[in-house]
Structures are given as structure tokens and as C-alpha cells.
Amino acid sequence: EVQLVESGGGLVQAGGSLRLYCAASGFTLDDYAIGWFRQAPGKEREGVSCTSSSDGRTYYADSVKGRFTISRDNAKNTVYLQMNSLKPEDTAVYYCAADFAICELVDEYDYWGQGTQVTVSS
User: Residue 60 and residue 77: Cα distance in Å, rounded?
Assistant: First the structure.
């Protein structure tokens, strides 16, 4: 069974850091593109970052460039999102997702986790 489980969220002050984890099971991680998405209260889900299954390409939304870093450890079936210099506008539920295709920041991935809450206070 394909499963994705996010963890690492929490409450931090503006300017702080968090490291999110996406633990994958039931499939070979390096065959899939992995994306991170977020949804703030009253807002639609938006793409944050993704990493390609084939060539290691990464992509970031303009709002997080220079602050967030996506990475993967295929041996551990885990994908990470390092979040630095956090801002209140980063507050959202963060989801990881897997797709047997290319890396894109579009809300059309095949598999989704249940999300982890990130709250950044001013």
C-alpha cells in the first residue's frame, strides 16, 4: 500500500527554522517525483517545491526561493523540506505528494499525505 506520512511541523517564531519529513512506503521512492504543497486557512492549496525522480531537478515557488530546500534520501525512503527564515505568511498545513511523472508545482499528484501543521508567529 502506498503511504506518505508528514512530520516535523510545529509552532515557531518568525525568522526560525523547521525541517519537515515525508516518510514514504509501498513504492520505490526514486521512481517518483516528490512535491511539497501547502494550504493556508481560507486559501487554496499551492505548490511549494518539488524534486524530480530522474535527474535531481528541483523547483521552488518564488515565495520560498532562498529560504526552503528540498532534498531526498532514497535509501531511507524519506524526503525533506528544510524551512529557514520563516515568515508568518508561511503558516499553513504542509503536504507531501508523489507522482510517477515529472516534477511540477501543480495540484495533480497521484498520492498525498495527510499534512503537518506549520505555524509561524510574528
Answer: 21
Question: What is the pairing mode between strands 111-112 and 116-121?
Answer: unpaired
Closest CA to 5 of 116, 90, 83: 116
pLDDT score of 29: 86
pLDDT of residue 100: 86
Neighbour tally for 121: CB within 10 Å = 11
Walk along the chain (122 residues) in steps of 10 and give the mean pLDDT of each run.
95 98 92 95 95 87 98 92 98 96 87 97 96
Q: Which of 117, 32, 114, 108 is nearest to 77 (CA)?
A: 32
Asked if 94 and 38 touch (Cβ cutoff 8 Å), the reply is yes
Own/partner contacts of 54-58, CB < 8 Å, gap of 24 or more, are: 54/102, 57/103, 58/103
